[in-house]
Amino acid sequence: MTSTRICPVILSGGSGTRLWPLSREHYPKQLLALTGERTLLQETAHRLDGIDTVLAPLVVCNEEHRFLVAEQLREVGVAPASIILEPVGRNTAPALALAAMSLLQQGEDPVMLVMPADHVIADIKTFQSVVGEGARLAADGRLVTFGIVPDYPATGYGYIKKGDGTDVDAFVEKPDLVTAQSYLDSGDYFWNSGLFMLKASVWMEELHRFRSDIAVSIENAYSSGTADNDFFRADQTLFRECPGDSIDYAVMEKTDRASVLPLSAGWSDIGAWSSLWEVSERDASGNVLTGDAIAHNTRDTMVVAQHRVVATVGLENMIVVETPDAVLVCHKEHAQDVKEIVNRLKDGDRTEHQMHRKVYRPWGAYEGVDIGERFQVKRLTVKPGAALSLQSHNKRAEHWVVVSGTAKVTRGDEILELVENESTYIPIGMKHRLENPGSMPLEIIEVQSGSYLGEDDIVRYEDIYNRVEKE
Q: Rounded to an integer, what distance in angstroms lies between the CA atom of residue 445 and that of residue 339?
């Protein structure tokens, strides 16, 4: 295919607000299995399987998602060269600069294939063929983007106008419907995919040329960064000072070295529920039914049932999504407006836009069972060999009951071993730790009581995961 070395750079920083309530800030769409058994991140990590010249991928992700990303890659046998952490989101140009710096600092300068972690590509053979062509152009110093061959007048994408050969004539913003139709009719325009191929050195050279403030900020933040187990953490203070910008705005729309290659490989960015409906397998009535969903006299509708039976009668062109703590009902034509619900939740200081009822941690997960005034009940699942931090709480006490498995409990100066149906009590202010020394998952019911039950009431003394933020 190509002898050019290719380093996949997977950008996994998005929050996917238009796919709420499945996608949330702490567990966004790239970490969800939306189109098959593997998550979008896992599919992206395997997108170049079979190409001999592909290097181990670099992943750039949000600090909050680091353990989830590492675990999902481990589950599908992908060992990344590095997982680079962004302390805060600064858009794609700084994220790509972090990846480029990681390669250049090691004396490497391969062609980077930049892939958002939340895209779908159905025709992998065609995609890999176009990647081979892009690699040859990028090896010669071009900044290559892939233009999706449009099949309808989309108003939700930016467009790329092709010039002579592979040259880019212009990048244009999202059009209205009339303009989009004219683009489609002309045959000279592609959808802007957000996929790129370019050498690490070329990216930094052009970034210095057009956005030297970003280039210098990232060079300083990376040089002052530190390795942390499987992760590399850019200097938080310096990174926060970096301006934000996209790859397109920072460089691609300004450079004279841009090339565009047409791509027709079943691409979708799953930008809204309507997009997911389009790429999903539908029944004879055009419905996509997931979970315990029953549809009667219903057409061209998507129903996702996670927690209970969901029945529809007489619906058409609708989206219905049920989770343990939220239900969304909307018309497909208004799917883009789901982000406005997320904004309303943020403005109301609610948490449903941030996390699900089940919250994942590096040691396992916890799920809210019940909550009331001065108490709440959680179910904790601790993975074999995993341990929570040695910690204490200033405003709450905890009572732990083992449901299944074996628990090793540090309780002040005591070390206890508890099995099924045994329990212990952790008073306010006492240092404690929960560990799973066994080979099976440990299930615990935790009853918290006190004047304040927030997750930020934690004093951490030791932690095998090197966390400094709230549990």
A: 35
